[in-house]
Amino acid sequence: MGIFDYFKSKSEPSSASVAKDRLQIIVAHERSRRTQPDYLEQMQQEIIAVIRKYVQIESDDVQIQLENTDDCSVLELNVTLPEKN
Amino acid sequence: MAKIIVVTSGKGGVGKTTSSAAIGTGLAMKGHKTVIIDFDVGLRNLDLIMGCERRVVYDFVNVINKEATLTQALIKDKRTKDLFILPASQTRDKDALTKEGVEEVLNELSKDFEYIVCDSPAGIEKGAQMALYFADVAIVTTNPEVSSVRDSDRILGILQSKSRRAEQGSSPIEEHLLVTRYNPERVSEGEMLSVADVEEILAIPLLGVIPESDAVLKASNQGTPVILDTQAEAGQAYSDAVDRLLGEQRPLRFTDVQKKGFFKRLLGG
């Protein structure tokens, strides 16, 4: 860092911290998918296809999650329906 | 029983072969009989890095197919005592490595050697999975850069689910992080992920940090493992990593910016 660098604006976050933030998000996302069973993805696609027969939704309007507790597994399905006009 | 160490990363070009050569050599220098196996079928390169490319007669696949014995295929290193190299085949047949064949060779080597270092190919395909399947210890080689860190996390997932230890439910593979091509100046400028960042994201214990160094290219040009360059920071950093792998305590070196003179700081650069 030379004397001229002190005149540059300091407001921008460093590229390394941007990299770290992006990595933390993508790695957490990929880890959660890793622990879920393989069929979940396909099941999600099929559920979306069924809902689409009746309501127009985007694929990210459906969140599907499998949570394992000690003695049972909970399949959580979250569908955001479009607002009525 | 030998300890099987896989040097892996997911991403290519991060320094797996350089690290396998350096760590294998380091273990042998410490008096442990070691063999380094090149698992990169079709893209053999460990022989070049170790400087024994002209002595390859038989390879790993020849041994698996019983076209040669292990004794015929193993190349004894000329510089380091107790060090042997098992070169990869240059065949284009991707199915040349079978789980049974690899297991048989590893069992045979286990009788004679203390450490078996498996130099994994890049990717997450069969070759990479074969290299890590039988491992006791994994050295995850990572550059402080987004794609390398993400791929390392991917490989960690595979180590935890597709290895023999995972499948048999025995104690998990011991995982170690090796950060390579580290540039402390760029880290201090906020242009490169720090060791702490990479450790925090991957959440596995740190084995070592190898600084970006001209010595690495020079060593590979000459076919000498960089750990033998005791003058170079990279060589010394690999020595530290080997010591830590053997359970010794070594403080981290070469991760801070070297102090610059007053004028150099004032003028930049």
Automatic annotation (TrEMBL), chain A:
The keyword Protein biosynthesis does not apply. Keywords: Cell cycle, Cell division. GO terms for molecular function: identical protein binding. InterPro entries: MinE (IPR005527), MinE_sf (IPR036707). It holds the Pfam family MinE. Belongs to the MinE family. This is Cell division topological specificity factor. The lineage of its organism: Bacteria, Pseudomonadati, Pseudomonadota, Gammaproteobacteria, Oceanospirillales. The gene is minE.
Automatic annotation (TrEMBL), chain B:
Keywords: ATP-binding, Cell cycle, Cell division, Nucleotide-binding, Septation. It comes from the Bacteria. The keyword Hydrolase does not apply. GO terms for molecular function: ATP binding; ATP hydrolysis activity. GO terms for biological process: division septum assembly; negative regulation of cell division. The keyword Cell division applies. Interacts with MinC and FtsZ. Belongs to the ParA family. MinD subfamily. ATPase required for the correct placement of the division site. Cell division inhibitors MinC and MinD act in concert to form an inhibitor capable of blocking formation of the polar Z ring septums. Rapidly oscillates between the poles of the cell to destabilize FtsZ filaments that have formed before they mature into polar Z rings. One of its GO terms (cellular component) is cytoplasmic side of plasma membrane. Gene3D superfamilies: P-loop containing nucleotide triphosphate hydrolases. Residues 5-226 form the CobQ/CobB/MinD/ParA nucleotide binding domain. This is Septum site-determining protein MinD. It comes from Marinomonas fungiae. It holds the Pfam family CbiA. ATP binds at K11, G12, G13, V14, G15, K16, T17, T18.
